[in-house]
Amino acid sequence: MHYLVLPILLSAVIVFVASFIIHMVLGYHKADYLKLPNEDQVRDALRPLNIPPGDYFVPRPEGRDDMRSPEFHEKMKQGPNIVMTVLPPGQMSMGRNLTLWFLYCLAISVFAAYVVSRAVPHGTPATYLQVFRFVGCTAFLGYAAALWQMSIWYHRSWGTTIRSTIDGLIFALLTAGVFGWLWPH
Fold it and tell me: Phi-psi category of 155—alpha, beta or left, where left has phi over 0 and alpha has psi -120 to 50?
């Protein structure tokens, strides 16, 4: 399996750099999150509540019976209905986030390596396209497909999901290209 180490590492590095270019240079993700009207008022109203970091659904039913109750239906009708993530106060740790992102890129490459190594065992003649297909499909699923659930269930903007899916496609193509290029012939 030593022949997979270089494509795993190199594809993770290339995807990491590509994601930097997409987010910091191209800037087409700037529209992913909208600015709240009266943002300062909302922050001032929420701050005293000292909401711990976490994911929240508002209003949140206690169970199935509560979800069917007229009171819950009235809350939903009145709004606002919110899905939100509360982050801890203070500066976001970019070092931590970038490290986790790189580890994620490595994990996707490892899964892609596993799938292609089972589909095209070492020593079996394989074309660039054979390797590319297995790695590309696996990497695409890892980088993009899971994002769709957020738009289906939690009404995340489909525009955001589509832009992130395009990123995932780019990352998958780069990963597949590296594996196809470095695959032993």
Answer: left
- For residue 126, what are the CA distances in angstroms to 8, 122, 129, 134, 172? 18, 9, 8, 11, 19
First-to-final CA distance of the chain: 15
**Domain edges within the chain:** 2-33+92-182
pLDDT digits (tens, 9 = 90+) for 110-156: 999 999 999 998 777 888 999 999 999 999 999 999 899 989 988 88
Q: Regarding predicted confidence, which is higher, 24 or 15?
A: 15
Quickly count: other Cβ atoms within 10 Å of residue 182's Cβ.
16
Rounded Cα distance between 158 and 108, Å, is 24
